Amino acid sequence: YNEEFRMMAQSEQFIKQKVKDFKAHPIVVETSTSAYDAIVQLFLEDVGTLYAVDSEGHLAGVVSRKDLLRAALGNRDLQEVPVSVIMTRMPNITTIYPEETLLEAAKKMINYHIDSLPVVKEVKGEKNKYLLLGRITKTTITRGYLELIEGK
Ligand code: ADP
């Protein structure tokens, strides 16, 4: 009973933690990067999602495994396809702020059927312009939860 109670209390605490304390480094490419090079990056960095930034360094798009698989289905030379034409672009990107909680992050990922969220900061006075601070993924949250329960 005590063990169960401890885990419940910890779970409740965990889900209230802030995104900023759990975020991982974002793997970033430029919008002009080819789909071919994006695939290479996925393998090199061992991630499922890349974030594309524009020439000013603002978040421009999200490139996931499915986006790259879809591009590979077309009979195009992936060296010639920039990620800008296959990515999910602003303003359709679901983002999260550092001060939000892991519960909010988990809800967004489940509700929008996505594996990761870019952690962002708004550029003052500019609508839909964000600086990229990190990423939160289903893996980040699951790992954090396990570490807590296992007392690491
Ligand atoms: P995968 O394609 O590797 O399964 P996702 O499930 O996260 O990864 O991606 C599914 C689709 O949702 C892709 O088209 C991707 O561009 C898009 N997507 C991923 N993350 C986001 C996000 N934070 N906001 C909006 N769209 C996203």
From TrEMBL:
<keyword id="KW-0129">CBS domain</keyword>
<protein>
    <submittedName>
        <fullName>Helix-turn-helix transcriptional regulator</fullName>
    </submittedName>
</protein>
<feature type="domain" description="CBS">
    <location>
        <begin position="87"/>
        <end position="152"/>
    </location>
</feature>
<feature type="domain" description="CBS">
    <location>
        <begin position="22"/>
        <end position="78"/>
    </location>
</feature>
